[in-house]
Amino acid sequence: MRDLHVEIWSDIACPWCYIGKRRFAAALADFEHRDHVRVTWRSFELQPDAEPSTAHPGLTEAQMLAERKGMPVDQVRQMFDQVTAVAASVGLAYDFDTVVPANTFDAHRLVHVAASLGGDPAAAEVVERLMSAHFEHGRVVDDLDVLVEIAVEAGLDGDAVRAALAADAGAGAVRADEAEAAALGIQGVPFFVADRRLGLSGAQPVEVFAQLLSQAWADANPPLAIPTIAGAADAEACGPDGC
Hints:
By secondary structure, the chain is of the alpha+beta class.
């Protein structure tokens, strides 16, 4: 039996990534071979040139997106209401009124630091807490102290995390993830890749993620087939129904 490796490219500040994370988790929880599925979180910055939160104190997410997209603020709020309703359907309580626009590079570095300290499970826990902090609790995810707090809440050693982030740990890994995304043709997130052979884009329904897992598992673990000698004719043999 061969384990299945699923890589998920996402951004902390992507509302559909958090929704997709929940839906994928639901599919994985019901998957027969879930104990043989390894999940790795990969970095993808939707706005790598985003200014840090300190550059625009008091700026709301609606104002930021309206300025960037050239849309009326009311239209942006309507979009947020729609996304909030979808998020609620998977148990998430988005509060866009408190979301603080931030640069997510250091948050992505934290995910890689968590992986180095505690493996993929620690990284997954940090991703969960970062997304929740950003979309549900209005915490500033590009503030070093907040990032250390989140790491501690995820069970990591605060001093080790602070030292790693101060030393620019994870920066190369973030850039490597983004380079791989470009090489794979990934242009948006969330994006799910199974064994580097099967991809799926977007916050798909749970049943679609279930199909991804089933198909990828079947590809990784094909039924055992015993080859026969070419050209050999059938000969006498016995079976369950007799000889």
